[in-house]
């Protein structure tokens, strides 16, 4: 397929990504770079004693017996202890090269040695999120059908890409950890990122009083130099203080509904659950992916790009065949 000239918007993004990388490398050289692995547990979003996956996902998990997370991992207390001692934890997603898309949540092959990898990892090595080409393209170019198609093809062809976690969804500017107002507030459940100054007022740092009061959605001290949030797309489960914890899928089973009322059908020794997990919690299915024209051609809608309209000429009105010539 012939490559089109990049649009002005695409060049702008590319330059921003390069600038981001340059700045980050400078920070790393100065010894201020991020350590390997995330600072909160991939399952319960809490900090504490975490074990990092030695695979490529960079996620951290609670393998201790104080949290309920080993259940979700399908490990017994003994198995978890052994893994902690050996320091060789590799999660099932990394073991089987099956990772979840951070937009739609479904599993896909991330095996880039196979003929058909389905999900691709963001180029920022401290990000490590995986995406379906279509899902990430829709998030980055919601209003520009043709940039979307081009980007999807590039990602699917294995080209390096920068995911939506690296610019503010409101002002499109990058992160600056040294300027408090320009610190990032990052959603734990989807690729939504705001500057502190751009954070919507309904993402609260303190819950509103009363049994029906709005729940807290933002935490200042969980991530170094960043704010941890659950954005408005995710319903907060009152008893958990987080969205439902059915968001992690491992390759062997489907969603492991750890917090279901029904008893688990596995030979695990009886164990006391952490207090906030002790009551059965209704499992909410994840919200549908952002509204999109996934299966519809929107060629007739106005373009929002700065690029000359000649770049968007169609061989036939309303067709998408322009990429093939
Ligand atoms: Zn945990
Ligand atoms: Zn992993
Ligand atoms: Zn997806
Ligand atoms: Zn990323
Ligand atoms: Zn912003
Ligand atoms: Zn979110
Ligand atoms: Zn089209």
Automatic annotation (TrEMBL):
Start and end residues of each Zinc finger PHD-type domain: 40-95, 100-167
Transmembrane stretches, start-end: none
SMART domains: PHD (SM00249)
Key words, A-Z: Metal-binding, Repeat, Zinc, Zinc-finger
UniProt-listed GO biological process terms: chromatin remodeling
Molecular function (Gene Ontology), one example: zinc ion binding
Ranges for region Disordered: 265-294
Taxonomic superkingdom: Eukaryota
Record Pfam families: PHD_NSD (PF22908), PHDvar_NSD (PF23004)
InterPro entries (UniProt xref): NSD_PHD (IPR055198), PHDvar_NSD (IPR055197), Znf_FYVE_PHD (IPR011011), Znf_PHD (IPR001965), Znf_RING/FYVE/PHD (IPR013083)
Name listed for the protein in its UniProt record: Zinc finger PHD-type domain-containing protein
Keyword Zinc-finger attached: yes
